[in-house]
Amino acid sequence: MRGSNNIKILGIETSCDDTAIGVVTSKKDILSNVVINQNSNLNNYGGVVPEIAARDHLSNLDHAINRALEESKLNLKEIDLIAATGGPGLIGGVIVGTVFAKSLAMSLEKPYVAVNHLEGHALTARLTDNIEYPYLLLLVSGGHTQIIAVIEYGKYTRISSTLDDAAGETFDKAAKILGIGFPGGPMIEKMSKDGDPTSFYLPRPMHKSKNPNFSFSGLKTAFNQIAMKNKLNKKIISDLSASIQKSITDCLIDRTRLGITKFKEILGNMSNIQLVVSGGVAANLHIREELKKLCLETDSTLFAPPLNLCTDNGAMIAWAGYEKYINEGESNLNFKPRPRWPLDPNAHLINPIHQNIGRSGAKA
Ligand code: KG4
Ligand code: ZN
Description:
By secondary structure, this protein is α/β, with parallel strands linked by helices. The chain has twelve helices and twelve strands. The protein has helices at 39-42, 50-72, 91-108, 117-128, 167-178, 184-192, 217-228, 234-266, 285-297, 307-310, 314-328, 347-350, and strands spanning 8-13, 18-25, 30-37, 81-87, 112-116, 135-140, 145-152, 155-161, 273-278, 300-303, 357-358, 361-362. The strands form three sheets. It has a five-stranded mixed beta sheet with strand order 3-2-1-4-5, with helices on both faces. It has a five-stranded mixed beta sheet with strand order 8-7-6-9-10, with helices on both faces. It has a two-stranded antiparallel ribbon with strand order 11-12. Helix 5 packs parallel to helix 7 (217-228) and helix 5 (167-178) runs antiparallel to helix 8 (234-266). The longest helix has 33 residues, at 234-266. The model has no long low-confidence stretch (mean pLDDT 93). Residues 117, 121, 141, 279-280, 312 line the site of zinc ion.
């Protein structure tokens, strides 16, 4: 099968609150991309409850796979490769997806690949925009905020990451404080449309620092304090939303500018570089616009996958599974789901902030 000319890959994603299944081909056709999100359930709690999310994956998977096959006009036997997120993520959901994928692979006698969720986001632009290595990746999701030099498949050099909270987490927390629902990013973006981004002063942590890392916890605290001092009517909510969206964007742009300089140094001062933005926060149109401007200013080209492929999805897992399979072969059916799984396993050796290694391995 490895030599066959159009491989069909089924990708399963269950690492957070979306149950997602996609089918893609090795020729980069996305045949289906089904996402069942648990927002209505999670809205009641203002966040993801791991145990509930895992149980929901269990009941959603059958339905998701049937829809994905129906949309791709394939039957299970026509699938050549089964890929599933093996981590990092909420371990209950990752276990559900992994067991499901292994069982499918065994019963169909097809190879199974355990995919790093971050690699799914990192390689999406190769599926959607057909880009070549190397490129600089701004990975901004609910759990991660990192700048990574993607040199080639499997060769990832971390330039920076957050010292505390992720950008998506900051959007989610702000939305929770404002009482406008979960996930917070899309709600903050929506409310920002009628708001004035200069109405409230919020800090820009690490702004202009020579250290390329991010930090968002101080911003979260400042936002909470300002919100508590105000009566939250529609106007104030819009203004606060626009202000925090602007502040997060300014931080991302300032850090990415530094990341671009460092990436150019890594590549021996190459001039025009490719910048890829991915992860759920990359669905934010204001952030995409500002990144476009940054690219103009720094002689770089921006690649931003379609919005539905920025947030968690099965197609990105299928594609990353395919790249892993052709580079490294299939995974062992003994693969153990990993709550932590950094893209660059040696990051903790070079940067003290990543030295927090728990029982489950280095923090991503
Ligand atoms: O990549 P993703 O779907 O899941 C993780 O791997 O974490 O990212 C989810 C995060 C959430 O924090 C959500 O609020 C944020 O992405 N997000 C957005 C937008 N859409 C999703 N943040 C800002 N603007 C958006 N439009
Ligand atoms: Zn994600």
